[in-house]
Every structure is written in structure tokens, then in C-alpha cells.
Amino acid sequence: MFEHSSVLQGLSLALVATSLTALEIRQLKYAVMAYFAQALLLAALLIAYAALLPNHTLYLWSATVLVTKAGIIPLLLWHYLKRMPATETPNALGFGLSLLTGAAVLAGFFRLVDGHMSWLAPFPEIAGEPYGTNLSVAFTILAFGLYGLLSRRDALKAVIGVCLIENAVHLSLVSLALSLPETAMIGVVTDVVLSVWILLIIVAGIHEKVGSTDMREMAKLWG
Amino acid sequence: MESNSVLPWLIIGVPALAAGAEVLLGRKRPQSAGLAAIAGVTITLGLVLVLAGRVVQGEKLIAWNGQLYADGLSALVTLVIGVAGLAATVFSYRYLRNDVAAGKTVAERLPFYFSLDALFICTMLWATLTNNLIMLYVVVEATTLASALLVTFYWKRESLEAGFKYLLLCTVGITFALLGCVLIYAAASPHVGGHQAMLITALAPVVDKFPRELTILALAFLVVGFGTKAGLVPFHAWLPDAYSQAPVSFSALLSIGIKVAAYALARVLTIFYPEYSTIGLLVVVLGMVTMLSGIVFAFAQDDLKRMLAFSSVRQIGYVMMGLGLGSSLGYFGALYHFLNHALLKAMLFLCTGALVYTSGTTLISQLRGRKEKGALTAICFFTGALAIGGMPPLNGFWSKFTIFIATAQAGLWWATGVAVFTSLLTLACLVRAGYLVFLEREEATGEETAATAGHGGCTSSSPEPAQHHPAAEPPWSMLGMMLALAAACILIGLLPGPVNRLIAPAVQSIMYIVAGG
Questions:
Q1: B189 to chain A: which residues are within 8 Å by CB?
Q2: Which residues of A105-119 are buried (b: 16+ CB within 10 A; e: fewer)?
Q3: Rg of the Cα atoms in chain A
Q4: Is A216 on the interface with B (CB under 8 A)?
Q5: Which end of chain B is more exposed for a tag (fewer CB within 10 A), N or C?
């Protein structure tokens, strides 16, 4: 049990670290690689939960993650990346300050969620381990993805932010919806893959018309 | 009485097949684009009418082990989607060919348009027929996915921006709805067990056993999630851009899309009202803020499409206000307004489409004093403007009046005051727009037109010169749809009896599920 817990905690920490890298790293191809690494970690984490709980459905979930989030989505990102500038449009904060702020957002939110786990858990068993860590990490990555959406100027980084949010929700399902049938799970991941694909098609179109993926530059409408 | 039926499957399947047929036929015969979609949506409307006929008589149709479920509420919404879907698709047939002639798009893209149009209708219908909480998220998101590339259809800088904003905001928003749905599912699992916990109809009897804080969080997520897609303020930023950049014929359908999200919200939230009455009050307040913001922004618009988009924001505010009250009169007013607004707004967008067809623009400053506008288009527009502004005896008056009475009955006089005030401003805003576009004389406007063209508008609608305005009235396939919708609106206002027979079962369905089935 102890070993399992440390594996889970290690994988969860690595998951959080890849979120920070995917969002903060300026070279877009490394950001995509960080996202790819996160998807692999997510698949590994699901296998770890499958062995610990034990629950065989999670092996299937892990396979689904491998195909979609570690397969199709990184390939799509990689494909469209070739048409974009190599480096993201810088945001208002410099690299160092942005990295520090990102890390602070992650740490702060993790503390906040972890401290209120009994409040967030739908029933008391979920508040304990291993679900507690799982939910805390999921909500932390979710909040970080949202922070990324609000703080980035680059449209491709916004898409990566959406991917992080979707990963977080997927992770939270381990605690919240373990008995979710495969049909519903397929529906959910299909939506995610299609939304990322269509977003990328539109971002490529914007790059073609505007010559940039800077969201401020393309903003011509009032909203 | 519940009975198994294949009808829900057929209603979802036929437009999906039509979408596939458009893709296949479009490769060989792009010139016939639209015919398969029109045929598919016509058959779907026929099926929806059969479904509504059975449901109104008290039957509840289920399929796929209860995963698909049609009651009075579903029947009302599917009927709205069917009618508006057919009107918008038939209208698109000639409208888009005019766009091709004007050089805005190419003929090879038309099968793509009609395929996604049919798919959008399919996903909206699925959303209204699903009884599965998680699938509700899946299909509401699918409506966004099916429509995003139609918002960007013209592939211009502005339409791409609008499409990006639409897809990004709605996807992130709806992910919160997924979290909300999952939290509710997690809370229901120990009490209902297995896959039953995902069935919306199975939730009501166990709502009181859910942990309170968690449920409030889940409901807040649902309001943010489905509220973003429904265009509730402050989550509405995508809406005016998407409406104004999409082809006008599709804007008419998009205005139905936001109502599907409002339906999703109504379907899930109402179950929680008996235990969580404050949620209802929150929805009333959100509805009020939404309607006020909608009218404030609407007056500043020079683009008719954006003005109508803000009008949609406002009318969704009325629907939410009625739904938030939690009383049967409130539900009745909300659903009545839901129906009226869907038909009226679809018609007003089609009128705007007719103006684009004849004059090549939707900017009021450019339309003023121009002569290419037809009398029938003007009549339809004014009917819509007066009805949506709440002028008796048109349909919009009765539904708004019901909402006013319901809010007053609930003791929320401040809400009644805001609703009446907004209604008067709506009337002023749209009638003024109609006057400027259709009635103002040319001599009086020459100088003003030049002056207003430079400011007061937005850059969203391309002010193309009217290079292609073949006739004062659009062709009959377009005009017929506008007139049919206008006639429906007038008849609903003058003869509310038959419509009441449709809305009353919808209200009863909500009450039935809330009461625990």
C-alpha cells in the first residue's frame, strides 16, 4: 500500500510539473512534448489506480487516454505546429516572472483544494487516500489550465490550456465516476479530440489570414 | 404512461443520414447541395409532429433502456428545432447560392454547409431527447462542434476570430457543465446505483440525500457551463460575434442552439429547486442581469445581426427568469416565451438574410433610404419586432405577460419592474431599427448615412457594396419561410388554445420529474 501511494504521489507531482512546463515553456514544440509527456503520465497514473483499487475498467480508460491524448491530440498539435511560428507570442509577464506566478498558482490552489477535501468529496471515502490526492491534483490542473487561458496571448497556448483542463477533468473521473460506462467515456473523449482539432483548424486559418497567432492582434470584434 | 418507441432513434438518425448524404452527394453533384438536408429535415419534422402528437396525449416515449426519453418538455423543444430547422435550411438553399454569385463563397463549399447544418439539427434534437446526464454534456458540446465551422464559413479574419472565440469559450464553459454533471452523478451513485445514476429522471427522489456543499458547487458549475452556451451574461461574449459572422441563415439556427443549452439547464436545475430554492433565485437574478445587459448593448449596434444577437441575449434572460421562479406559472411563461422567441428570432434573422440578399449589407447606416427592400420583408420584420417587443395581441405579449404575472405572484416586484422596463426598451429598439431600415425616406438620410457609416458601427459585418441585388423581394423559397414563421407567430398570439395544449404537458413534465416521477 505504501509503495502504491508513493508511486501515485510521484506520478501526480510529475503531472503537475508537466502542466507548468506545457504552459510556461516558450518553444511551442517543447510545450507540445510536455503535453505529450503529461498524457503518458495520465495513462500511467490510471494504470496505477487500476492496480491499487483494483478496478479493471481503469485499464480501458488508460488505453483510451493513450490513443486519444497521447496519440491523436499530440499528432494534431504537431501537425498544425509546422505552420505556426516556433516561439509563442510572449505574454505581459517575462519568462521568469511568468514561471514563478504559474508555480505560485499551482502551489496555492493545491493547498486550497487539499485543505477542503472533505467539502469537495461527494461521500466521505473519497476524502481519504488515494482519492484525495487524485481530486486535489485534478482541481489544481483545472485551475492552472484556466489561468493559462487567461494569461496567454498565443492562440496555440490557449488550445494547450484547453487540453490541460480536459486532462484534469479526465483525472477527476477516477474519483467521481469510476463506474462511468464506456459509451459515455467514448463520447467525452471524442468531444475533446474534435474540439481540439477544430480549434487548431481555426487557429491555422487565423495564422494564414492575420500572419500571427497573437490573440490581441486578431481581436477586431467587440465581443 | 411510458412506452418503448423507435421514434426518438429515427428523429436523431434521419438528420444524421441527411448530413452523410450531403457529403456523399456533394462530391459528385455539388450543384444539388441542400436537397438532401431539406428532405432529411422535412422528414424529421414529420416524425417530430408524430412524437408531439403522442406525447401531448400523455404518453412518454423511451428508447435504449431509458437513455432516450421524450416527454412534454422534449416534445416542445424538438418541435421548435424541427420548425426553425426546416425554415432555416430551406432559406439557406437560395441564400447561399446568392452568396456564391456574389463571390462570398464557392459552390464546392455548399455541401459542407448543408452537411453541418443537418448535423447541428441532429445534435440539438439528440440533446433534447437524451435522459443521460453525461450524454447531455456530450451532445450539447457536439452542437458547438457541429456549428463552429459554420460560424467561420466565410473564412474571413473576423469570422475566424468569432469562430475561435465561440469554440474556445463554449468548450471551456461546457467542461464545467461536465464537472457539474459528474459531481451530481457521483453524489447520486451511492443512492441510485449503477448506470441508473446517470438518468436524469432517476435523480429527483434522491436529491435530498446529496451532500449540500457539493451539490451547490455542482449546480454552480452547471449554471456556468450551460449558461455560457445559452448566452447568459456575463458568459455571453461569444454570442454577438458568432451570430454576426455566421451566414445569416445559420444565425437563425444558432439562436435555437442557445435555447437547447437553456433546455439542458432547465432539465437538470429544476430537479434541485425543492431542496435548493436559492438556486432558483440566482437564476432569476442572472436572467434579470442578462436582459438588462442585452438591451443596453443592443441600442449601440449599427449591425442588424448584432442587434438581433443582443436581443437573443435579452430574451434568454426572460426564459431564465421564468424558469428560476420554480412555479408552474413561471415554467409556463418561460416555455411559452421559449417557443415564441425561437420562432420570432428565426424569422427576424431570415428577414435580415433577405436584406443581405437584396441589398448586400446588414448595417443599418447603409440600409437607410435604400430602395431594394421588399414590402413583405418589411411586414415580416415589423411583425417580429412588435411581437418580440411584447405588443398585444401578438404571441410575444402573452408569454412576457405570463412571466410578469409569475414574477409578481412570487413577490419579486423588482424582477417584474425590470422585465417590463426591458420589454418597452426592446420594442423601442427594434421598431426604431425597422423604421430606419424600411421606412425612412432617402432624401432625409443621405447626409446622415455618410456620417453614421464612419462610426457607431462595428467592424464585424463587412460593409460590402450591394453588387448583387437582383430583386426587391427575395425568391419565394426564402420569402415563404419568413411568411410561414410570421403567420405562426400571429396565429399563436390570436389563438393560444392549441399552443397551450403543447405547453401545458411540457410544464407537467417538469413538475412530474421534480416530484420524483
A1: 122, 177, 179
A2: bbeebbeebbeebee
A3: 18
A4: no
A5: N
Contact between chains at A177 and B142 (C-beta distance less than 8 A): no
The answer for residues whose C-beta is within 8 angstroms of residue B341's C-beta and 6 or more apart is B259, B312, B315, B318, B319, B388, B396, B399
Q: Check whether the bond before B393 is cis (ω within 30° of 0).
A: yes
Q: In what order do the strands lie in the sheet with B60-63?
A: B2-4, B60-63, B68-70
The listed range with the strongest mean pLDDT (A8-12, B138-142, B355-359) is B138-142
Q: How far apart are CA A17 and CA A35, in angstroms?
A: 11
Do B362 and B351 meet the contact criterion of CB atoms below 8 Å apart? no
What residues of A are in contact with residue B155 (Cβ under 8 Å)?
Answer: 205, 209
Omega within 30 of 0 (cis) for the link into A122: no
Query: CB of A78 within 8 A of CB of A90?
Result: no
Place of cell 430551406: B90
DSSP state of A89: P
Instruction: Identify the weakest region by mean pLDDT among A207-221, B127-141, B220-234, B315-329.
Output: A207-221
B207 confidence band (pLDDT: 50, 70, 90): confident
Reduced to 3 states, what is the DSSP secondary structure of residue A214? strand
Give CA B358 to chain center in angstroms.
Answer: 25
Q: How far is CA B7 from CA A89, B39, B50, B503, B505, in A?
A: 51, 18, 8, 20, 19
Question: Are B268 and B127 spatial neighbours (Cβ–Cβ below 8 Å)?
Answer: no
Residue of B139, B151, B168 to mutate for A, most A C-beta atoms under 10 A: B168
Question: Is-contact B412 B376, C-beta < 8 A?
Answer: no
- How would you label B206-216 residue by residue, b for 16+ Cβ within 10 Å and e otherwise? bbeebbeebbb
Res B464: pLDDT: 45
Mean pLDDT of B371-385: 86
Q: Sort out which chain A residues have CB atoms less than 8 A from B144's CB and list them.
A: 195
Residue B453: pLDDT band (50, 70, 90) is: very low
Q: Are A15 and A42 in contact (CB under 8 A)?
A: yes
**Cβ atoms of residues A62 and A39 within 8 Å:** no
Using CA atoms, how far apart are residues B291 and B283, in angstroms rounded to an integer? 12
Is the Cα torsion angle A206, A212, A214, A219 positive or negative in sign? negative
Please indicate whether, in this complex, the C-beta atoms of A126 and B186 are within 8 angstroms of each other: yes
Q: What value does the mean pLDDT take over residues A68-88?
A: 89
Is residue B4 helix, strand or coil? Answer: strand
Which residue has 412555479 as its cell numbers?
B327
CA B32-B36-B40 angle, to 5 degrees, is 160
Q: Which residue of B has its CA nearest to A223?
A: B237
Q: Considering just the CA atoms, what is the radius of gyration of chain B in Å? A: 22
Cβ-Cβ contacts under 8 Å for B334 (sequence gap 6 or more) = B266, B318, B319, B320, B321, B322, B323, B403
Pairwise CA distance, residues A127 & A119, whole Å:
8
Domain ranges for chain B, please list them. Answer: 2-458+467-514
Please determine, for residue B59, whether its predicted confidence score (pLDDT) is greater than 70: yes
Dihedral over alpha carbons B241, B242, B243, B246 (to 10 degrees): 120
CA B312 to each of CA B146, B241, B342: distance values in angstroms, whole numbers, following the listed order? 20, 13, 9
* Percent of all residues in chain B with a pLDDT value above 90, rounded to a whole number: 58
- Helix residue spans in B326-394 (DSSP H): 328-359, 364-367, 375-388
Number of CB atoms found within 10 A of residue B53's CB: 11
**Candidates A142, A187, A220; nearest CB to B135:** A187
Could you give the CA distance from residue B490 to residue A187 in angstroms, rounded to a whole number? 41
Weakest mean pLDDT among A20-29, B219-228, B448-457 = B448-457
